[in-house]
Amino acid sequence: MDAANDTRQRIITAAQELIYTRSYNEVGVQEICDHANVKKGSFYHFFPSKRDLALAVLDQSQAFMHETIIKKSFLDDIPPLARIERFFTTIYEFHKQVKENTGRIFGCPFGNFGCEMSTQDEDIRSKVDNILSTSEKPFVKALTEAVERGDLPAIDTAATARAIFAYVEGIMLYAKTCNDPELIRELGKRALQLAVPVNMQ
Amino acid sequence: MDAANDTRQRIITAAQELIYTRSYNEVGVQEICDHANVKKGSFYHFFPSKRDLALAVLDQSQAFMHETIIKKSFLDDIPPLARIERFFTTIYEFHKQVKENTGRIFGCPFGNFGCEMSTQDEDIRSKVDNILSTSEKPFVKALTEAVERGDLPAIDTAATARAIFAYVEGIMLYAKTCNDPELIRELGKRALQLAVPVNMQ
């Protein structure tokens, strides 16, 4: 990695950490620069605005979620519905560990941005909207496979995946607000009940 | 209402509107004072800190939700499960109207505060936590009545109400992020599927 890429990456990583543990509007550019050990002029060389940084942070958080949670959960070494259950176990264990280390549940980085910024910045809203749709895809795939195997009756897999991921966002918001990772485990058990019958969406 | 109460009320109402349509950290005390047509010294007479104002805003939003949504939805003129369906119809119609008037879905005022502030202010987190628990109560009551009438099998009504309200928060987050009130109608139809069997929580 060359020096410019390294500086850009340090800014993104500093912002990701500060914003995730607090909130977007609460963290200023100066604080991000201090945390990344970068001069403010250098910041604006890489990011014309704080919004551009936010979009890069969202990309990095999405890549992180894919590597640490999605890929592991949806491996096809177990039946498709068990993979969805493993998704909930994985996010439960992740946030339980974070709580043990920090005393806090920080929620879903995408839900946090969506909640805080959707009415304030159309580019950020649209990006989070897109990340939510993309996050539904491994659920659609697992549900489709479960229907094909006869593990589920015929259902609207796209509508079901959307209902499940909306529930995921609600669970993460509850876990953050109640500061209790056990809610992820308890509420997650009900996710597969949200099946949407075909033609009844 | 005397002059002091009127001033206090104007500050709360201005803050409620500004924070709900944007976010807590994005709205400063000076802007709230300007919007309420109140001097900054007067603000601190009523609210020692912005956090104290946030807690009063949450009280007012809770009272508003009770009057406009909960009371109307959970009237006992229809069977208990139909009241839960009416809750979703009511929030759908409310946010559809807001979207028509403003072009935006602003989400759940409690979920918004919980998402943005839970890791930053323990008093606000605890207040929102309490409001979420209180919001589950009319659902517990309707579910209990439905079990008693034989409209539902024996279920853990408290755990079911919690799962349903977590789903409500996820639906509102999705509707805000996708800026689409139709998600409230579509996803809301699945809420009663989240029944939690007795002793299996």
Describe the structure.
2 copies of one chain form a homodimer. By secondary structure, chain A is mainly α. Chain A has 2 domains: 1-48, Orthogonal Bundle (Arc Repressor Mutant, subunit A), CATH 1.10.10; 61-194, Tetracycline Repressor, domain 2. Chain A contains 9 helices and no strands. The longest helix of chain A is centred in the C-terminal third of the chain and has 28 residues, at 122-149. The mean pLDDT of chain A is 96. At the A-B interface, helix 6, helix 7, helix 8 and helix 9 of A face helix 6, helix 7, helix 8 and helix 9 of B.
What would you say about this model in short?
Chain A has nine helices and no strands. Helices cover 73% and strands 0% of the residues of chain A.
**CATH class (first level) name of the largest domain in chain A:** Mainly Alpha
The CATH topology name of the largest domain in chain A reads Tetracycline Repressor, domain 2
Chain-averaged pLDDT of chain A: 96
Q: Give the CATH superfamily of the largest domain in chain A.
A: Tetracycline Repressor, domain 2
Total helix count of chain A?
9
- Work out the radius of gyration of chain A: 19 Å
Strand content of chain A: under 5%
